[in-house]
Amino acid sequence: DQQVKQNSPSLSVQEGRISILNCDYTNSMFDYFLWYKKYPAEGPTFLISISSIKDKNEDGRFTVFLNKSAKHLSLHIVPSQPGDSAVYFCAASDFNKFYFGSGTKLNVKP
Amino acid sequence: KAGVTQTPRYLIKTRGQQVTLSCSPISGHRSVSWYQQTPGQGLQFLFEYFSETQRNKGNFPGRFSGRQFSNSRSEMNVSTLELGDSALYLCASSLDPHRAANTEAFFGQGTRLTVV
Q1: Cis-peptide into A82, omega within 30 deg
Q2: DSSP code for A39
Q3: What distance, in Å, lies between the first and last C-alpha atoms of chain B?
Q4: Which tens digit of pLDDT belongs to each residue from B14-58?
Q5: Is A83 helix (H, G, I), strand (E, B) or coil?
Q6: Which residues in chain B have their CB less than 8 angstroms from residue A49's CB?
Q7: Burial grade of A46 (CB within 10 A; 0-12, 13-18, 19 or more)
Q8: C-beta atoms surrounding B6 within 10 Å
Q9: CA neighbor of B45 nearest in space, from B79, B1, B92, B4
Q10: Cα–Cα distances in Å, from B8 out to A9, B19, B21, B109?
Q11: Which of A1, A43, A93 sits opposite B110 (nearest CB)?
């Protein structure tokens, strides 16, 4: 029972362009959403988050958008850099537990 | 501030054996969660401990168990290992999702378990 889904296993983008990673969820009780970035052989590192009371949160090149009516979350990276190449996981919290998507592997080509 | 520490980093075991993995959370963090990562499956939630009590449990068989000590350090045990248990096991610590809903989880580097 996957409550958080990332339907694109991979994404390839040219350096300098925008990367858009998408995430869908099913549980309307989720109150907090997060994005994590993972390099091979390392644990995921926290990137950016958004509360369910907001629809946008920005941090430098990273912006997360939340569309509650569509139960959809997206991460925009502008401009994309080769160092952004990694697996990105979205996660949702229902106050006491985190649910993760299956990840999207982003490849930013120089 | 030291991050989340998991030991060992790599482990090879044979089928039928048991294994214990260790996780030391960030100082002051009382919640420790364990996840299994396999290719294409993302991070599957195993269980969460807070103040030495298991608060949440994922959909894994009883062969997977854990515990948390008074210093918040946690161990995860897998008995009667199967080939399918080969995965990266990640531990994450957070302040206390119950009290501060918007606290993110910080992950360790994981333990890569290979069952042969």
Answers
A1: no
A2: -
A3: 37
A4: 999 999 999 999 998 888 999 999 876 778 889 999 889 998 888
A5: helix
A6: 102, 104
A7: middle
A8: 22
A9: B92
A10: 29, 11, 7, 10
A11: A43
